[in-house]
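ok trying again, last paste got cut off:
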Amino acid sequence: MDHLEEDYPERLLAPRVPPCLSLYQPTHPARPDKLQDPIRFRNLVRSLEALLAQRYAVRDAAPVLAPLRALAEDHGFWNHVQHGLAVLRSRDEFRVYRLQRSVPELALVADSFHTKPLLRIQQSADRYQILALRRDRVELYEGNRDALARIDLAPQVPATAADELGENGIERQRANRVYGSAKPAAVTRHGTDVSEDMRDNETERYFRAVDRAVAEFHSRPTRLPLLLAALPEHHHLFRRVSQNPFLLDIAIDVHPDDLSLEDLRQRAWQAVLPKYLARLTGLIAAFQAAQAKHEGSADVSDVARAAFEGRVATLLVDADRHIHGRIETPTGAIALAKAGATDAGDLLDDIGEQVLRTRGEVVVVPSERMPVQGGVAAIYRY
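nice, full thing came through this time. structure:
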């Protein structure tokens, strides 16, 4: 399974040779609704086939559609969907993303990938990750205010202690062996003591390996806050060896297997909420200060032009607001769609993508916490 945080925005916003196929679908992690997901997917693939025939002179669409048709028949894949699905296909690219949030159903063929739903997900301010830690294995979850789902670990992360230590690992010493001098005055250490020391050392080695790999291949690419769910004694050891700057000091001090997924989400969100609110408060205060000095704006036209010129350092986008239109090139002026247009793009998402292309920060904010009503609030670089 492809990892969205590794691909967005650079890979997915890169120019492509058309046609580019974009498929979005709400999915269902539980029965009975999930049984309909493959059927709806096949219908969307048929829609893509029809659009290819209408809009592009594709002599043979079969090679382009082949991986999508194969995915439709992959029963293992459909048994592990989450709340949404994104599939992007061109002649040289095929990416599949399980999404934690539902997305509107869409089948689109165009000159570039339709990535705007991914912007709304990837740049949302309420995302976090949970490392579920045991002595001998780990799992990683990603969540937000509303949902939590297990995500695939990067191949470099040792999911089990055996992956790092080998199959024998800490079991290679037997508890009934005796070590030390046999002289009466000598202190002997029994096998149980030595075995426990080895077990602790192996656990520390495993935790270090997990920490390094999670930091490099999950935390740094996503920059998401990381919570630790583990027994208290494992918290102490992991935090002592951890070098992950995204690990929060908040504890979910319970064995991960003792909580349901919903209980884990509730515990995590209550832990993350104060930091989430503090971050939004700081961003809003920074925008208001910049606006007062004419170094920021909430005017959509001004922000669009500044984004095109690469002058937006931070952009706040209303999570629930959409403005039908687009940014005109090469001027950066906005063109609003005519009333009733059904195929118009979203101007706010276009602005967000342009900010990402110029290495700015985009934060999707709930409507009730936006400092303005127009849909965007920008802090300029200059």
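cool. The longest helix spans residues 191-222. Residues 192 and 281 are 54 Å apart (CA to CA).
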